[in-house]
Design brief:
3-stranded antiparallel sheet, single chain, globular, 3 strands
Length: 182
């Protein structure tokens, strides 16, 4: 039987580690190969490995249940908002990593869901969403931050479906309001 390559995505590595530890602590014996697949699948929010495999075959993107919402840091949201112009385009790349991550969520939200792009198409889309002329930086960082999926040959890009954090949702609402006022 041939093996098919499957992607594995867990949006919160801390929740993944807790889930794995809990499952392994309940066992007296080491789990076998198939049981390890089931444990990893459950830790990523699936019922078992068969559910994960069926979801991937159907193209679904299921994520782990979100942890309780953290309070929104409105100062950080305002700082990120200053990086955008009136049309919601990213006008400058922030120096702080935490602001970069927050700004990338605003770009992620404007990428069509469940659609595949080649490198030229995703670069063109990102080029239209910013003003500082480095779409390659944005594309690379979105892949690094697990907001975009990229095949190993870099030919296909797809938005990774997931729930944005509370601060990103607040930023998206503020940007939506700014665009509505224009």
């Amino acid at each position: 039987m041939s093996r098919s390559i499957m992607t594995y995505h867990a949006p919160d590595i801390s929740a993944l580690a807790r889930s794995l530890k809990r499952e392994l602590d309940e066992r007296t014996e080491k789990p076998g190969h198939v049981e390890l697949l089931n444990i990893l699948s459950r830790a990523a929010g699936f019922r078992n490995f068969q559910h994960l495999r069926a979801a991937q075959a159907a193209g679904e993107r299921l994520a782990m249940p979100s942890p309780p919402a953290a309070p929104v840091d409105h100062v950080r949201v305002e700082a990120a908002l200053r990086c955008f112009d009136g049309q919601g385009r990213l006008s400058r790349w922030p120096a702080k990593t935490s602001l970069q991550q927050l700004c990338l969520w605003a770009l992620w939200a404007r990428i069509p869901a469940e659609r595949e792009f080649d490198e030229k198409a995703i670069s063109g889309l990102l080029r239209d969403l910013h003003l500082f002329g480095d779409h390659a930086l944005l594309r690379r960082e979105m892949v690094n931050q697990r907001l975009l999926f990229r095949t190993q040959d870099c030919k296909v890009y797809r938005r990774i479906e997931q729930r944005p954090p509370a601060e990103a949702i607040a930023l998206l609402k503020s940007l939506g309001g700014a665009r509505a006022r224009e």
